[in-house]
Design brief:
Elements: E1 2-7, E2 11-17, H1 22-25, E3 36-41, H2 45-53, E4 58-65, H3 68-79, E5 83-89, E6 95-101, E7 107-112, H4 121-131, E8 134-140, H5 149-162, E9 166-170, H6 174-179, H7 181-189, E10 193-197, H8 198-205, H9 210-219, E11 223-227, E12 232-237, E13 240-245, H10 257-270, H11 275-289, H12 301-310, H13 317-323
Parallel strand pairs: 1-4, 1-8, 2-6, 4-5, 8-9, 9-10, 10-11
Antiparallel strand pairs: 2-3, 6-7, 11-12, 12-13
Helix pairs in contact: 2-10, 4-5, 8-9, 10-11
The structure holds adenosine-5'-triphosphate and magnesium ion (MG).
Adenosine-5'-triphosphate binds at residues 197, 227-230, 232-233, 246-247, 249, 251, 254, 256-259, 261, 283, 286-287, 290.
């Protein structure tokens, strides 16, 4: 059985570092040169990569273009022992994100969603059937932007639930929540674990405080996590709320912090750790990610096991030691 099937976006990250402020560096005509470049797989695969890195059993469903980026994305999943349900689209290119990074770390993103938007319900159904059961199905809010992908992803949640998987949802961006309030409310209603950041939670709370909002959802039986960057996170279950302070980090690049957090969280939840302990681990795991460049700068497994021991995870520790 899989620990988690991630249903989300296939994105290649193209990171270009600029010598100057991006707008100053760009000329409308002609060629613009950047100091350095890095092309690497990103998107929702980051979560599956984090889970697999920790020793969890991960799968990924998404849609790429029939092009070299799509092939590279698939090869990367395979090299990380992630079971891949990647569909290929002849009519669109693989999604990519161009990040223009200025010397002070400020980022401007240029996104082409490409083939992602064309993921269909039948494709998701067939892949879920092929992959078989999972403890969790993860859905990305970024994948709810356009049809038919939106319906395909929501269908994955329904099927997962029907098969007894816990449905984990990350809204992804406060702007998406603002622009599609009904879609996001529906997705949250039908999830079991909500993992949102503070900005997203503020929009969702719709006038309530973030803590009250988290509590109110948790009273309905959901597990709620609110990620708060360097401040750590809030967790709420059964109407109880606790704050987990941030783990001090020498932050170099916060790209993918939220994905690393989810990978760590899913790893612990799939080992049956309770929400607070799972979030403590996720908080630590994500804090180590931000100390390195790129979305997949993960701490070593040995260090992860040592951290799990240090927070005295009473249940499942033996399983933990045999798995990692
Ligand atoms: N500067 C930091 N120092 C320590 N930990 C951090 C820092 N930034 C982020 N984290 C860790 O990463 C987690 C997720 O970060 P954040 O709250 O920014 O989520 P997010 O907005 O979903 O991230 P993303 O931008 O990747 O989508 C935090 O809850 C925390 O555990
Ligand atoms: Mg996020």
């Amino acid at each position: 059985m899989f620990d988690c099937i991630v249903v989300g976006d296939v994105m290649m990250d193209v990171v270009l570092k600029s010598e100057r402020g991006v707008l100053n560096a760009l000329e409308i005509d002609g060629t613009n040169y950047f100091r350095s470049a890095r092309v690497a797989p990103g998107g929702s695969g980051n979560i599956a990569a984090a889970l697999s890195h920790l020793g969890g059993k991960a799968a990924f469903i998404g849609k790429a273009g029939q092009d070299p980026f799509g092939t590279a994305y698939l090869r990367d999943l395979e090299s990380l022992s992630i079971a891949a349900g990647v569909e290929f689209d002849e009519s669109a290119s693989t999604g990519f994100v161009i990040s223009l990074v200025e010397p002070d770390g400020h980022r401007t993103m240029l996104v082409s969603r490409g083939a992602n938007d064309n993921l269909g319900q039948q494709e998701v159904k067939a892949n879920l059937q092929k992959l078989g059961p999972a403890k969790f199905v993860y859905l990305s809010g970024y994948s709810l932007l356009n049809l038919p992908q939106r319906e395909a992803v929501l269908e994955a949640g329904r099927i997962g639930r029907g098969n007894g998987s816990g449905v984990v949802f990350d809204p992804g961006s406060a702007n998406l929540v603002k622009d599609h309030p009904d879609v996001f409310e529906g997705a949250i209603d039908s999830c079991d674990v909500l993992c949102a950041n503070v900005a997203e939670s503020k929009v969702l709370a719709n006038g309530l405080s973030v803590s009250e909002y988290a509590r109110s959802l948790s009273r309905k039986g959901k597990k709620v996590i609110v990620k708060a960057g360097a401040q750590g996170c809030l967790v709420s279950t059964e109407g109880e709320l606790s704050t987990l302070p941030g783990v001090s980090a020498n932050a170099l690049d916060t790209t993918g912090a939220g994905d690393a957090f989810l990978g760590g969280l899913l790893y612990c939840l799939s080992l049956d750790y309770d929400l607070t302990k799972s979030a403590s681990f996720a908080n630590w795991f994500a804090s180590r990610k931000v100390e390195g460049l790129g979305p997949r700068h993960f701490p070593r497994r040995e260090d992860a096991v040592a951290f799990l021991k240090s927070i005295r995870l009473e249940r499942g520790l033996e399983r933990e030691e045999t798995r990692v």
